[in-house]
Amino acid sequence: MTPFPILTASFLFLLFCVAPPLTTAATDTDSPTAYSLLQSYNFPVGILPKGVVSYDLDESTGKFHAYFDKSCTFALQDSSYQLDYKSTISGYISENKITKLTGVKVKVLFLWLNIVEVIRNGDELEFSVGITSANFAIEEFYESPQCGCGFDCDGLKSESDDSGRNPFVSSV
Protein backbone atom coordinates (compact mmCIF):
# COMPACT_ATOMS: atom_id res chain seq x y z
CA MET A 1 0.00 0.00 0.00
CA THR A 2 1.37 3.40 -0.95
CA PRO A 3 1.25 6.51 1.28
CA PHE A 4 -0.42 8.49 -1.55
CA PRO A 5 -4.00 8.31 -0.10
CA ILE A 6 -2.72 9.46 3.30
CA LEU A 7 -0.73 12.34 1.77
CA THR A 8 -3.71 13.36 -0.36
CA ALA A 9 -6.07 13.30 2.61
CA SER A 10 -3.56 15.26 4.72
CA PHE A 11 -3.07 17.82 1.95
CA LEU A 12 -6.84 18.29 1.51
CA PHE A 13 -7.32 18.63 5.24
CA LEU A 14 -4.56 21.23 5.43
CA LEU A 15 -5.93 23.08 2.39
CA PHE A 16 -9.41 23.34 3.87
CA CYS A 17 -8.14 24.37 7.30
CA VAL A 18 -5.70 27.03 6.07
CA ALA A 19 -7.56 28.52 3.10
CA PRO A 20 -10.75 30.27 4.21
CA PRO A 21 -13.77 29.59 2.03
CA LEU A 22 -15.15 32.36 -0.16
CA THR A 23 -18.70 31.34 0.60
CA THR A 24 -20.70 30.22 3.58
CA ALA A 25 -22.75 27.10 3.01
CA ALA A 26 -25.44 25.49 5.12
CA THR A 27 -24.06 22.00 4.73
CA ASP A 28 -21.91 22.31 7.88
CA THR A 29 -23.80 21.53 11.08
CA ASP A 30 -22.19 24.58 12.73
CA SER A 31 -23.37 26.94 9.98
CA PRO A 32 -26.37 29.12 10.75
CA THR A 33 -29.64 28.17 9.09
CA ALA A 34 -30.96 30.24 6.21
CA TYR A 35 -33.57 31.59 8.64
CA SER A 36 -31.04 32.75 11.25
CA LEU A 37 -28.94 34.23 8.45
CA LEU A 38 -31.97 36.30 7.39
CA GLN A 39 -32.27 37.56 10.95
CA SER A 40 -28.61 38.62 10.96
CA TYR A 41 -29.46 40.96 8.05
CA ASN A 42 -32.48 42.34 9.99
CA PHE A 43 -35.18 40.34 8.16
CA PRO A 44 -37.83 38.15 9.78
CA VAL A 45 -37.75 34.40 9.10
CA GLY A 46 -41.21 34.43 7.53
CA ILE A 47 -40.10 35.83 4.18
CA LEU A 48 -38.88 32.29 3.48
CA PRO A 49 -41.28 29.35 3.66
CA LYS A 50 -40.38 26.29 5.69
CA GLY A 51 -38.26 23.75 3.87
CA VAL A 52 -34.97 25.40 2.91
CA VAL A 53 -32.57 22.46 2.67
CA SER A 54 -29.38 24.45 2.07
CA TYR A 55 -28.02 27.80 1.01
CA ASP A 56 -24.81 29.49 0.00
CA LEU A 57 -23.69 33.05 0.56
CA ASP A 58 -20.74 35.00 -0.77
CA GLU A 59 -20.19 37.29 2.18
CA SER A 60 -18.04 39.72 0.17
CA THR A 61 -20.82 40.50 -2.34
CA GLY A 62 -23.99 39.37 -0.56
CA LYS A 63 -24.87 37.02 -3.44
CA PHE A 64 -26.94 34.11 -2.12
CA HIS A 65 -28.83 31.02 -3.25
CA ALA A 66 -31.41 29.19 -1.14
CA TYR A 67 -32.44 25.67 -2.12
CA PHE A 68 -35.67 23.75 -1.56
CA ASP A 69 -36.31 20.09 -2.43
CA LYS A 70 -38.93 21.26 -4.94
CA SER A 71 -40.86 24.39 -5.83
CA CYS A 72 -43.20 25.76 -3.18
CA THR A 73 -46.58 27.38 -3.80
CA PHE A 74 -49.13 28.58 -1.27
CA ALA A 75 -51.93 31.12 -0.84
CA LEU A 76 -52.06 33.83 1.79
CA GLN A 77 -54.86 36.02 3.09
CA ASP A 78 -57.54 33.49 2.22
CA SER A 79 -56.34 33.17 -1.39
CA SER A 80 -56.31 36.90 -2.18
CA TYR A 81 -52.87 36.20 -3.61
CA GLN A 82 -50.55 33.25 -4.13
CA LEU A 83 -46.79 32.96 -3.84
CA ASP A 84 -44.51 30.64 -5.78
CA TYR A 85 -40.92 29.88 -4.75
CA LYS A 86 -38.83 27.97 -7.30
CA SER A 87 -36.58 25.17 -6.02
CA THR A 88 -33.69 27.67 -6.14
CA ILE A 89 -34.03 31.34 -5.28
CA SER A 90 -31.20 33.84 -5.47
CA GLY A 91 -30.34 37.49 -5.06
CA TYR A 92 -28.13 39.88 -3.13
CA ILE A 93 -28.64 40.49 0.57
CA SER A 94 -27.40 43.34 2.74
CA GLU A 95 -28.66 44.97 5.92
CA ASN A 96 -32.40 45.67 5.41
CA LYS A 97 -32.30 44.99 1.65
CA ILE A 98 -32.62 42.07 -0.78
CA THR A 99 -32.09 43.01 -4.43
CA LYS A 100 -32.02 41.26 -7.80
CA LEU A 101 -34.22 38.55 -6.31
CA THR A 102 -35.07 35.68 -8.66
CA GLY A 103 -37.25 32.62 -8.16
CA VAL A 104 -40.12 34.22 -6.20
CA LYS A 105 -43.43 35.16 -7.85
CA VAL A 106 -46.75 36.54 -6.66
CA LYS A 107 -50.05 36.04 -8.46
CA VAL A 108 -51.93 39.31 -8.92
CA LEU A 109 -55.38 38.79 -10.37
CA PHE A 110 -54.48 36.45 -13.25
CA LEU A 111 -50.80 37.46 -13.74
CA TRP A 112 -47.71 36.01 -12.10
CA LEU A 113 -45.21 38.80 -11.29
CA ASN A 114 -41.62 38.38 -10.10
CA ILE A 115 -40.80 39.83 -6.70
CA VAL A 116 -37.48 41.53 -7.40
CA GLU A 117 -36.70 43.42 -4.20
CA VAL A 118 -37.51 43.37 -0.49
CA ILE A 119 -36.65 46.34 1.71
CA ARG A 120 -37.10 46.65 5.44
CA ASN A 121 -38.04 50.13 6.54
CA GLY A 122 -38.55 50.21 10.30
CA ASP A 123 -41.49 47.96 11.16
CA GLU A 124 -42.52 47.46 7.53
CA LEU A 125 -41.37 45.33 4.62
CA GLU A 126 -41.73 46.62 1.08
CA PHE A 127 -42.04 43.98 -1.64
CA SER A 128 -41.39 45.25 -5.16
CA VAL A 129 -42.44 43.60 -8.42
CA GLY A 130 -40.70 46.29 -10.44
CA ILE A 131 -43.72 48.26 -11.63
CA THR A 132 -45.35 48.47 -8.21
CA SER A 133 -44.72 47.58 -4.59
CA ALA A 134 -46.65 46.81 -1.44
CA ASN A 135 -45.86 47.40 2.23
CA PHE A 136 -46.63 44.92 5.00
CA ALA A 137 -46.23 45.08 8.76
CA ILE A 138 -43.19 43.10 9.86
CA GLU A 139 -45.19 41.12 12.43
CA GLU A 140 -46.91 39.33 9.54
CA PHE A 141 -43.57 37.58 8.90
CA TYR A 142 -42.53 36.36 12.34
CA GLU A 143 -43.35 32.77 11.33
CA SER A 144 -42.52 30.94 8.12
CA PRO A 145 -45.42 29.77 5.96
CA GLN A 146 -45.65 26.15 4.90
CA CYS A 147 -45.58 24.98 1.28
CA GLY A 148 -49.02 24.01 0.03
CA CYS A 149 -51.06 25.69 2.77
CA GLY A 150 -49.28 28.88 3.92
CA PHE A 151 -50.47 29.70 7.44
CA ASP A 152 -53.86 28.00 7.12
CA CYS A 153 -52.56 24.45 7.42
CA ASP A 154 -55.04 23.45 10.09
CA GLY A 155 -58.02 25.13 8.42
CA LEU A 156 -58.46 27.28 11.53
CA LYS A 157 -58.88 30.65 9.81
CA SER A 158 -62.43 31.80 9.46
CA GLU A 159 -63.89 33.42 6.35
CA SER A 160 -64.54 36.59 8.38
CA ASP A 161 -60.76 37.18 8.54
CA ASP A 162 -60.68 37.99 4.81
CA SER A 163 -60.12 41.70 4.30
CA GLY A 164 -60.50 41.31 0.52
CA ARG A 165 -57.39 43.46 0.11
CA ASN A 166 -54.81 42.72 -2.54
CA PRO A 167 -51.87 45.03 -1.80
CA PHE A 168 -50.12 44.40 -5.13
CA VAL A 169 -52.92 45.88 -7.23
CA SER A 170 -52.22 49.53 -6.49
CA SER A 171 -48.88 51.31 -6.58
CA VAL A 172 -47.38 52.68 -3.38
TrEMBL record:
<dbReference type="InterPro" id="IPR007493">
    <property type="entry name" value="DUF538"/>
</dbReference>
<feature type="signal peptide">
    <location>
        <begin position="1"/>
        <end position="25"/>
    </location>
</feature>
<protein>
    <submittedName>
        <fullName>Uncharacterized protein LOC108841864</fullName>
    </submittedName>
</protein>
<dbReference type="Pfam" id="PF04398">
    <property type="entry name" value="DUF538"/>
</dbReference>
<keyword id="KW-0732">Signal</keyword>
<dbReference type="InterPro" id="IPR036758">
    <property type="entry name" value="At5g01610-like"/>
</dbReference>
